[in-house]
Specification:
Length: 296
């Protein structure tokens, strides 16, 4: 996106602004302490509000629809899901120079899942398959009328993915990446009725408590359609054995699996070319994701 577009606009968000927004719009929570949560990802600035709530403010224009999307759908989805999700309790309005809707949600305890802790866990892999199965079973209903829900298409990523393959060809096997990408694009599409997908289902959006999966967070890319994009978790988190258990538990056919590998490759490449040079953590994560996607 071009420099200066709304997605690149990043307002100044400090604790004084968040305090004013909360106290003015939700005076019932005015006495609760605020604490900045760091690190908090690239899309939102997050504060803990008291013991039971969190305040999430979009940090750039590309994340502005999440508050209303989550407040509209997560309360309906949550009762059907086997892991906790961050159900919003209020949506705030723009004010004091801050330009977008923002959300107050229930606080979820836990630590971000790590490859070191869960890569070899078939139990965790099956739990994630069960979560996605439950999400996909919930009928989309009137979701097709919601313009904020994400639409996913591998073909839309073709130009950027091929450019990224060319850029990182000295680091990864360009021929193997091109072969996988061509196969993913040519694979038969999703021919069953559209289902819910999380849309950003990777390690950073999973929480654990005492080493066990406890919650799935960040539904900003929630949508309805082909669920292949959610297979990315198999390549960001799992080693070969748990990955096979995950696929079997979810009942993924060959065409959906190859599209899922394509999603893992495309998103891994996008993050790698954008951030790997300046963030060693992202470099390690995306290297693993791309490598595992190529392995399959």
């Amino acid at each position: 996106m071009a420099t200066g577009s709304i997605a690149d606009t990043r307002p100044s968000i400090d604790i004084a602004l968040v305090r004013r927004l909360v106290d003015t719009q939700f005076p019932q929570w005015a006495g609760l302490p605020l604490e900045l949560l760091e690190p908090a990802g690239s899309d939102h600035v997050i504060h803990r509000l008291g013991e039971e709530l969190s305040v999430r403010l979009p940090g750039h224009g590309g994340a502005t629809g999440q508050a209303r999307k989550e407040s509209g759908w997560l309360p309906r989805l949550a009762p059907h899901l086997p892991l906790a999700v961050p159900v919003p309790v209020a949506v705030g309005e723009p004010d004091f120079g801050y330009p977008w809707p923002w959300a107050v949600s229930r606080w979820l305890d836990g630590e971000v899942a790590t490859v070191e802790a869960l890569a070899d866990s078939s139990r965790a892999a099956v739990e994630l398959a069960d979560f996605l199965s439950a999400l996909q079973r919930f009928a989309p209903g009137d979701a097709h009328d919601d313009p904020d829900l994400t639409v996913r298409s591998l073909a839309d990523r073709d130009r950027a993915t091929r450019a990224a393959i060319a850029e990182v060809g000295g680091t990864f096997d360009a021929a193997a990446m091109t072969e996988l990408w061509d196969a993913a694009l040519s694979a038969p599409g999703w021919e069953r009725p559209p289902v819910w997908f999380h849309g950003d289902f990777h390690t950073g959006n999973l929480l654990t408590v005492d080493g066990r999966l406890s919650a799935v967070i960040d539904f900003g890319e929630l949508g309805v359609g082909d669920p292949a994009c959610d297979l990315t978790i198999a390549f960001t988190l799992m080693s070969a054995g748990p990955r096979a258990a995950f696929r079997a538990a979810l009942g993924v056919d060959d065409a959906t699996w190859i599209r899922g590998r394509g999603w893992a490759l495309a998103t891994g490449l996008n993050a790698h070319v954008s951030y790997a040079a300046v963030d060693p953590r992202v470099a390690a994560q995306t290297t693993r994701q791309i490598t595992q996607a190529l392995i399959g």
